[in-house]
Structures are given as structure tokens and as C-alpha cells.
Amino acid sequence: MSEDAGPNPHADGTDCRADSSDTSDAIVTLRPARPEDAAAIRDIYAPFVRDSPATFRTDVPTTAELAEKIRAKRAVDEYPWYVAVSDAGGRDQEVVGYAYASRLRDRAAYRWTVETSIYVDPATHRSGVGTRLYDRLLGTLRRQGYCSAYAALGMPNPESERFHERHGFERVGQFPAAGFKLGEWRDVVWYHRRLRDPDGDPDEPRAVSAVEQPTDER
Asked: Which of 88, 192, 196, 212 has a 20 to 30 Å separation from 135 between CA atoms?
């Protein structure tokens, strides 16, 4: 979830309460993130930074920082970033969740491996937004040619553990007491999902724009 080199204890999570059966009449669509989504993304992310061990970040990023991060990711075209937007309650295309992939480590041999991140607004209760975002993200990564996805979860985070296990991730390791947040030392648990079988000398991963599918899904 981070652009830092090396396994990152700043673990992103998801709120699975937004991932049960659909009980809403709202239309939710998925599309690539845009710099103008930064304020809404910050609003979703900020409570996790302030109140949760799910991310080890302790300072809420500014809207400008997030807008630049989105802009840079789109320009490089290596890793997808999606938002879910809803018209619930008459609101016009409100961002209610997001998911993206990042480089796991900087060294070249890692370039077929990604780290994934997902956050969903807890107010989007029982809508399946988390599942749709992850399905979209992982599908794009697979078509690009990435072989493995990893997710690093700050503990305790049972909802995110269940969410990742439902999406085919397996727990593969733990960094004990990797960070100190909210008055306690926190472990980080790593999850892995195979996206495609590595076979011989792989082709370079393709650009997001080369494999992107229409996003006007309901």
C-alpha cells in the first residue's frame, strides 16, 4: 500500500461492514480515481489514521498530497486505483470507497508483485462495495501480468482478515510488534494471493490503460 521500499508496516485495511448482501437501492459505479477525488478519499482514510491500527500512518495526509499521489499514479500507468461512487440519498457521485495497488519493493526482480490497499466508508453498510472494488482491482492486475498480490494488515484487524480470506488471500507471515500506535505495540500480518502462475521468463507487466475495461458497471 505504500511506495516505500521494503515490506511496509503501514498496513491498509478494509471495513467489512460494507461488504455484505446488498440492501440499498443506490447505484454504485466503479471508475479510475481522479485527482479531484482526493478530498473524499481523505475523508474515508482519516478515521483509520486517527483511530485504528489498520494503518500505521499517524498523520492524516492533506488533500493536496493525495491529489498528487493519484496524479502521479495515473501518469506512470503501472498500478490501478479505483473509486466506488454512489448516488445514495440523492447525492451526486459521492466516493464511498477506494482500492489501489502499489509496488511491493523497489528492486527489479519484484516487479511482478504488488501490494494492495482498500478502504470503504463504514456508512456504506451492507452494499458489497468492498468486494466489487477488490474484484475490479485484482482482475486488472491479473490482466496486466502481475503474478502475486500481498496485503499487510495492522493488528488487531479481524474484519480485514476475514475479508481477505474470502477473496482468496492466505496468511503467510507476521511481523511481531512492528509498530507502536494508539498506546500499544502492534503486529503486522501479511496475506498473499496468487494472481497468475509464474511460468518461465515472464513478459513485463502491461500498462493499466492497455488492459482497462469499461467502468460503467452497476
From this structure: 88
